[in-house]
Structures
1.
Amino acid sequence: MHAKRIRITDLKLKKQRGEKITMLTAYDAMMAGIFDQSGIDALLVGDSVGMVMLGHNSTLPVTLDDMVHHTAAVSRGSARALVIADMPFMTYQVSVAEAVRSAGRLLQEGAAAAVKIEGGRSVVDVVRRLVEIGIPVMGHLGVLPQSVHQMGGYSQQGTDSKQAETMIADAIVLAEAGAFAIVLESIPGELAHVITERVNIPTIGIGAGPDCDGQVLVSSDMLGLGGSVAPPFATQYVNIGDVVKSATRAYIEDVESGRYPAHIRPTQITIAK
């Protein structure tokens, strides 16, 4: 018997009931399955795949083909969680028509249930059109990784009154355009609290304090995987990286010393002379 798939309406109900929403990033079927079986509400196939899995130093080089490939893997690996795919850089900024085609591929080929795009009023026409044709959209405000050069890095956003007012207005516009939720990344907790109260859709925080309707973490940060330093707001629940290194060193030593595979009984074969 298959578990009931979580839908965007379930997330809205959680907000109404005051229940927290849980979300992690996932990039492959194996980890998606583990997260899914653990009871996670949503899996975000983030364009952070560029840095976490593909070795880039930003999200900008990630292509639509990359996202379709990884989204399909995550979708195959999960049976319950809501699968949301990031729309990568330059797949929705050029025109609404191109955004529709790009989002369509993520749903049709990647089997995503929804897409996520960065920005506020600048992308509201895209959000509105995607929702009109039946593609659920999650918004993203605060630090926008695809705009890292314009922002001058990944520093916290919304720290002055003008930025804060703009972000509140953007959140309201996104909700009115039909977005089903908004990620709030690296903004003051007080601002996230205000936005969460001002919109009737769930807010998902990442470095935005405890008052959002839910939280998301980059899974490699949570698990202690990868060589990069995790942001200060990311709690590391385990250091799998050290465990894997230790196991790898043990394997190397066993092979070099002849201990492996000496413990495995050899197959008895007769060689014709």
Note: The two ends are 56 Å apart (CA to CA).
2.
Amino acid sequence: MRTALGLKGNRQSIVVTNNPSTIDANQTLTVRFPNLGTNDVIVPGTARIAFNIVLDGGEGDNRTVVNNLVRAIVKKISVKLEGKEVPCLDDADIYLCYKDLWLTDKERKNAAYYGIHFENTAKIRLGANDAVATSQTDPSIAAAFSNRFAIPLDFEILTDHGPFYQMGLTDRLSFELMFNDYARVIRSTDANVIHEINNIALDFDIVTHQDLARLMHQQYMSHTLVLYTRILRHRMIALKKSDVTIHQP
């Protein structure tokens, strides 16, 4: 009974450098999934966009970034199949940062790569002058990840619907991410500080297995449904601090 009866295969990590490999604030980054080997499938929950961030300009040597950086840095996410939009999320930074408040303590402790950590850890990773090595945890995280972070691509077809098999689709899966303003990402007393994002790459793990690839291809050919959460922003209502009640029109 201890023998796993599921399909197994060799697992390896893949890094695909994006073109372009740099992006600036208020620009849109397009990332397309490649066709791999005939028997290669992507392991669920491993797809992400990794990048390095450097703070530059101004005179604020104690500058750092906001907590939950990778959610705050993207303000719009669009998932497309061969150019046709499936879901589109405006104000992604607000919604996803709010959603991540429900992460467990264990999930938060393991989310340093995604920019969730103590403020001092971020300062060490970005080289702020007032960073303090108060414990072994902060320097260890900084040494492991440095200034590299990753945006999880947690669309359901990559996480909840089994291994992803790009070659089994007639359309290519792509993500479009619009990056946020400097002010929504950087914490500094100097408004002239900017961030530089470079070395952008698509990271994921693959498993090579002929039967598993054939199984996923058969599922795609049988018109498998992709169930995902569609979020609609109905309206925005401007409020004043002096308002004590909210009237819904």
Note: The mean pLDDT is 88.
